[in-house]
Amino acid sequence: DTGVSQNPRHKITKRGQNVTFRCDPISEHNRLYWYRQTLGQGPEFLTYFQNEAQLEKSRLLSDRFSAERPKGSFSTLEIQRTEQGDSAMYLCASRRVGGQSHAYGYTFGSGTRLTVV
Amino acid sequence: RKEVEQDPGPFNVPEGATVAFNCTYSNSASQSFFWYRQDCRKEPKLLMSVYSSGNEDGRFTAQLNRASQYISLLIRDSKLSDSATYLCVVNIEAGTYKYIFGTGTRLKVLA
Fold first, then answer.
1. B41 exposed, middle or buried (CB, 10 Å; 0-12, 13-18, 19+)?
2. Alpha helix (H) residue ranges in B1-111
3. pLDDT grade, residue B92 (50/70/90)?
4. String of DSSP letters for B15-30
5. Which residue of chain B has the CA closest to A10?
């Protein structure tokens, strides 16, 4: 297992188009998180899954955003009708929950950098 | 007040210097604390967890002060390779492991 994998690494799209990103977490990690990061800011929480269940969505996640994790393994994040303000790095992270897991941080993927033109 | 606040810097220090960053958090019920390192245009990577009694990992020392609600990171004998942004991370809601990130403190170690 080589860690958390995200693709594509970069995506340039025209305003109004739909885009979808994929995240493959570390296989034994049951929690999966999506964050968004813009220049000069820390990552901002968007949503997270426990297995296939989406447990929380941030207010930042407008109705144009949807995330799924259909089989409790990989996850997708779709943005419909993209806007220039959606331009950011979209980061996926996973972690194991259970045991002494309070001491463990996330493992992040390399991110998908979205540019909306 | 932001949930997690950090001085954005940049902190410009010479090689070999000792540098310290602080981070304050607003929720007294916060459970877990971490420092992450982020290189330019890369993903954040876990540097170290912060334990109540304080902990050390080589040149790095992390401290937690629950009474004043801040955590700190001390870097001794700075190396050029330590240049990065250091993100303070707090788990505010027990059981969710939903981490709140600070904006980061940028460190530049100068030759």
1. exposed
2. none
3. confident
4. TT--EEEEEEES-TT-
5. B41
The CA radius of gyration of chain B, in Å to the nearest whole number, is 13
pLDDT at B29: 86
pLDDT tens digit sequence for A56-109 = 999 888 899 999 999 889 999 999 999 999 999 999 999 887 655 555 678 999
Selection from A57, A54, A93, A61 nearest residue A80 by Cα? A61
- The answer, yes or no, to whether residue B103 has pLDDT greater than 80, is yes
pLDDT exceeds 60 at position A29? yes
Q: What is the pLDDT, as a whole number, of residue A36?
A: 97
Distances from the Cα of A113 to the Cα of A19, A20, A24, B45, angstroms: 12, 12, 16, 17
The H-assigned helical ranges of A21-93 are: none
Rounded to an integer, what distance in angstroms lies between the CA atom of residue A106 and that of residue A15?
32
**Touching A: B residues 49-108, CB under 8 Å:** 49, 51, 87, 89, 91, 96-104
Smallest Cα–Cα separation from A16: which of A82, A84, A115, A114? A82
